[in-house]
Amino acid sequence: MNAGASKHSQPVLAIHGGAGTLLRSQMSEAKEKEYLAALHSILEAGQAQLAAGATALDVVVEAVRRLEECELFNAGRGAVYTAAGSHELDASVMDGSNLQAGAVAGVTRTRNPVLAAQAVMQHSEHLMFIGAAADAFAAAHGLEQVEPSWFGTTARLEQLRRAQQAQAGALLDHDGQQLAASSAASGPIDERSKTGTVGAVALDAQGHLAAATSTGGMTNKQVGRVGDSPIIGAGCYANDATVAVSCTGTGEAFMRSCAAFDVSAQMEYLGLGVVAAAERVVHHKLPQVGGSGGLIAVSANGELSLCFNSDGMYRGYARVGEAPVVAIYGDQPA
Within 13 A of 45's CA, how many CA atoms are on the CB side? Predict the structure, then answer.
């Protein structure tokens, strides 16, 4: 499904907070408002940045940082637990103006992994750091370090315990919430199939594109597992000539498909618009390798696609001068 597909050239920001199976019957009105308000607030802040002339890179990094700070989403605070009861977080950023990128994987102490990814891009000859070395690099560049327990929440720990009791194996992102609670307050998406990676894409007033993606991974995942979120070309990609993309879903399938880059490639080599390219990747190519989830994308001319093959995706966009649009379900227009 797509939204905001008409062509515009004014600056625009789009964000996502995960995709999965829709369970409207299990969401309270209060919970829906909480999710939508969080998305709306982040979009408003990014919209103001773009209106003030901020770069696309700065806007997507700040949007994802705000998503990392929000316990509703599986990135930063509120990240899911590994099978060992720990947290391992991944993030990436890419600047479409020069194809520079940075990424971190398996960080355990850096409060905002997306800031660490940006620091790698700006201050290192390398593109990715992992584990303790990534945390050390972030600390050396002044980024806040926290105790690993800072990322955890009671709800996420209960997800892990229930998943392990049920011998459910690794559950995509914060899939374990449905095991932990089936009440109306548990959330608007069936947590058995919800994928909670967060991301942002933007086009700025100078015509530059950027993308950023961040995640806490999978509930009960094996220690050391890395998905698509920090992989440039799989979970994140930006190129001023074509498109900026951030993905959310079954990471292994997105890696096999080089999903984010494939949207750009189809635009460049086949001459497709962003909507058609995103649909080909999400609805045709990803399912061939068991891929579920979606992506957000903005093209060099400001055309948007918020496309997913699941029943819902936390998502929204805001163009400068227009009211932000937010949605959760597949039958909503965002």
Answer: 18
